[in-house]
Amino acid sequence: MSYTIALAQCTSLPDISQNLVTAEKFIAEAQKEGASLIVFPEYFMYPCTGDTASYTAHAQPVDGPFVLCMKELAVKYNIWLLFGMNEKSSDVHEKKMLQYIGHSGQWRHNTRYLSKNTFVRCI
Question: Which domain holds residue 95?
Answer without folding.
Answer: 5-122
